[in-house]
Design brief:
2 copies of one chain form a homodimer. The first copy, chain A, contains 14 helices and 10 strands. Chain A is of the alpha/beta class. Chain A has a 6-stranded mixed sheet, with helices on both faces. Chain A is globular. Chains A and B meet through helix 12 and helix 14 of A and helix 12 and helix 14 of B.
């Protein structure tokens, strides 16, 4: 079960291995949004995203026998890099299954952390089956991307730090994909501040959690083309969803244009690179999706891993809009 | 005269109006450079550069009569925005003389801070005479970009904060244009740590300070085409140069290619936008221009104001090199 105790244990376990990321504020963002906004900068986290927290907590919690066997993760994105980094630092062997068409830069970053890369075909192979088969054949322990209490507790340490530093927030917003970050952060936040309202934010074309909450049951949506490549999961997790149901005041959605506009704002005004997925919660605030009575707003900037060509397209798009 | 006392007075005077910017570190930068590097993040300063420190100190030091008259600055860059911001917050009228061909974005930012903009022709007009004439006609007080002890003391507060936070640096590096930042930071650093070695860094095509130190006298160089648009000053200041002579262990130079490579490293690895001028000191470290015996290195990232088209060119250039 996920609770404050599990999150506090995670915090103690991972503290030597991750950054306590800074909380930043910006006059310009406050002026533009009409709120008092605090940013938890997980784009400055090790390996460039909050994922280092959960992966480190999971891997550091393994038994000695499991550590000797090694771990496996299936991911083309930030979870891949996080598992590779956390495993290397714990002297644990890591295999990472990655789609063959994943961005070269992310593959190289994962390889640079020492992981053993296995490619699968996104169209032909079932990614979960592909990972499970390697795990069984090679005796590896699976490190899930979100549907695991130790992963969620690790991500929750981000919320714990955030509320320790800024206790009196009216609300907190996180991007939402499988739901691990939202589950962890909202659990920590509500434990430390019973009045706080928690919002999950999704791209409007990848709103599986929003639809699932409306239905009261997990919905699976078709693949989304959103630029928020980290939020393309098609349904909430089995373990994360009940926590989201309990903790979410609402799910807000943002368009790709709003995400891109927010990324440019963060880059040129706040001087920070935030990836599309990482900018969705900020986009919801900048584009005024929050109720007017919520003034003191916590935003998790969840990651900063952007491919140069994606960023170049985004700048081009900004020029065209002027 | 510039000394620690003047810098401490500046620090007390400007504290309510500027950011105490964070000091950051990066495993990746340390690995790539072979040093233990601390970054003083003035790209996160108000108005996007250290210039807010000096301008605020100067304007807050004016007599009541001078404040009633208002101020003028001549600049197309960060000094313009800094003076406009500092004046607005002190309820002082600001006129800023800007070349007619300055980047629209910087003009708009300066105007957004409430300054009265006057355009001059970079080819036809003498910029200093243009500014002096307006100052005399309208009774305004000139806020120099660097050649003024209150400006230098303001910039020195950056060094004061840096050494307070990381006292045991072997060396500190700053970008160098007119010399105000280097004079201020090196004076503070040497007062707090008598062993520290101070390096000024210039683009190799804008090495007026390097040439001046070699000659023992201020040299004027032709206009430089460097991408470091904030470092195109053609000679060191009359007041800053003697301080640079006394404090600089050496002037290091970096090429535009090294600056661009460093900007991309800072952006994609450290997730921070640093402008070309602001990245020169980091470039000197990344490109291994420092003596081997200096291990604990302080780097001032002096600003983060980059035009989107300049950044787009830089990404394009990075793609072509791969």
């Amino acid at each position: 079960m996920l609770n404050l105790q599990l999150i506090k244990e995670a915090a103690a376990r991972i503290a030597p291995h991750i950054h306590r990321t800074p909380v930043m504020t910006s006059h310009k963002f406050n002026e533009a949004s009409g709120k008092q906004v605090y940013f938890k900068c997980e784009n400055l986290q090790r390996a460039g995203a909050f994922k280092a927290r959960g992966a480190t907590n999971k891997i550091r919690s393994l038994s000695d026998d499991e550590k000797r066997r090694g771990v496996i993760a299936v991911s083309s994105g930030n979870h891949a890099q996080a598992v590779a980094l956390a495993a290397r630092e714990a002297n644990v062997r890591a295999v990472v299954a990655i789609p063959a068409d994943a961005p070269k830069m992310k593959v190289e970053a994962t390889r640079a952390y020492g992981a053993d890369i296995r490619f699968f075909d996104r169209q032909r192979d079932d990614r979960d089956a592909f990972g499970r088969e390697i795990a069984e054949r090679e005796g590896l322990v699976m490190v899930p991307a979100y549907d695991d209490y130790l992963i969620m507790a690790g991500q929750g340490t981000c919320g714990l730090e955030f509320l320790q530093e800024v206790p009196d927030l009216d609300c907190v917003l996180t991007p939402c994909s499988g739901g691990g970050l939202f589950a962890g952060v909202s659990t920590a936040a509500r434990a430390l501040n019973s009045e706080i309202q928690c919002f999950a934010v999704e791209p409007e074309t990848a709103n599986d959690t929003q639809l699932s909450l409306a239905k009261g049951d997990r919905v699976t949506i078709p693949p989304s083309p959103t630029i928020a490549d980290g939020l393309r999961v098609q349904s909430p997790g089995a373990l994360t969803f009940p926590i989201t149901q309990q903790n979410a005041r609402a799910v807000l959605t943002v368009s790709d244009i709003e995400i891109a506009e927010t990324m440019r704002f963060m880059l040129f005004r706040l001087k920070m690179l935030v990836e599309p997925s990482g900018a969705t919660a900020a986009a919801a605030v900048l584009c005024k999706k929050l109720p007017a009575d919520l003034k003191r707003v916590g935003v998790v900037l969840s990651g900063g891993n952007v491919d140069p060509d994606v960023l170049a397209d985004l700048l081009q798009q900004g020029e065209n809009e002027q």
